[in-house]
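pasting for the record
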Amino acid sequence: MHRQFFVIDGHCDTLSKLDDINNLEYRSNNHVSLSGLYKGKVAIQFFAAWIDPSSPGSCLHRELQLIKRYKRMLDRYAAHFCPVLCLADAEDAFNVGKIGTLLTVEGGDVLEGRLSNLETLYNAGVRLLTLTWNRSNQIAGAAMDDQKRYGLTSFGIEVVKRMNALGMIIDISHASEEAFWDVIEVSEQPVIASHSNAKAICPHPRNLDDGQIRAIAAKGGVVGINFYPLFLSKTGDAGIIDIIKHIEHIAGVAGTDCVAFGSDFDGIEALPQGIEGPQSFPDIIEEMLKLNYSEEDVKKICHNNFLRVMEKVLK
């Protein structure tokens, strides 16, 4: 495994599984561990703060509690983690050999219909917002919500514009097709699908069609390959070769500049055969090299494409 192929992973749900006892030093039942991140040469891990919007109580309050958990994690592992708010922070982490952590929020329900809450999240260190989760909300319709199919709401348009102004990455994973195309039209910055795959390979509602992939590429964004077997293959029986199939399809449709990794570790109940956690990234990389991917293209997929988006969007 060449050291030059360090990885940026655009999505994991590990925060939801952490507490003061269940930590990152031992894997227990979690996909992500400190040793796994090091073995996998993960240079930056995007940590998603997700709360179930259907649970009782204020979404924002519960979200801020989860962000406190993230900050406790940073304090506990200060010798290993470096929070990333801008590209310079990522470079600092690289230089001192620490793992960069970028805080994200999955599901715009946490805004509770108030634009001021977006700034609250930004001031708390959040640098990416996934506009929806599985249910449609006050921002946009969701891909998995058959009851409420719509695009960006008027509030959603305000959110997208404010995210552009603040320097936050817009993530359209989970968004309905209508919302996707509205975001493409409204956003002046690159948008990403942090953990989504190619519908042509696996026709799941959460995956993207070729037109959507081309649109993300045209905006300078990326598609992070999701490792959930049901998003990788029609049968749900998937392995490393299925991850490669999605990489190859997206690269064939729109070039290698828009492909990245968005594993969804700890947010999925099953993993592909041959994947145990971030420690398995080198196996995927070796497979790409065996298939004669150029070193330049492998570096793009591993990290350079995400670095380009971060440089463009983050202030």
